[in-house]
Write a structure and sequence with these properties.
Strand content: under 5%
Order of helices and strands: HHHHHH
Radius of gyration: 16 Å
Distance between the termini: 23 Å
Length: about 130
């Protein structure tokens, strides 16, 4: 798969999940994460939604760009995002915040795959 296709897929996933979190935070929290709803949780879900939309737009806008120090920085930031948020949902399940394993297993698999993709394209990139 080319980096362009990878970044396009990443952008679409981020945009879809981000829009869902922004528009329907209670649905995300209650029916996807199996967590207790609250106004605070809704605010945080919306915040995450905006952040994911921003990353989605960024990845979509740079998907045609060639190798450069800027592209390397974008790939590193994306990899850090994936590795940074990867343990949050499993920890929430472990501590009883999330009520079901399905609240984190699909996300964890997605984060591992995306992190691996970003690392793959970083390794393939010439050194800057």
């Amino acid at each position: 798969m080319s980096r362009k296709i990878f970044l396009t897929i990443v952008a679409c996933v981020a945009l879809l999940i981000g829009c869902f979190a922004l528009v329907a935070p209670s649905v995300l929290i209650e029916q996807v994460k199996y967590a207790a709803p609250s106004p605070t949780a809704d605010v945080m879900a919306r915040t995450v939604g905006v952040l994911l939309i921003s990353f989605g737009v960024l990845n979509f806008l740079v998907r045609n760009h060639g190798d450069s120090p800027t592209m390397k920085s974008i790939l590193i930031a994306n990899a850090l995002l994936q590795i940074g948020i990867m343990p949050i949902d499993p920890y929430a399940y472990y501590t009883g915040v999330f009520g079901d394993m399905s609240a984190f297993v699909p996300n964890t698999i997605l984060h591992i795959l995306l992190f691996s993709g970003f690392i793959y394209y970083l390794v393939k990139m010439p050194k800057y």
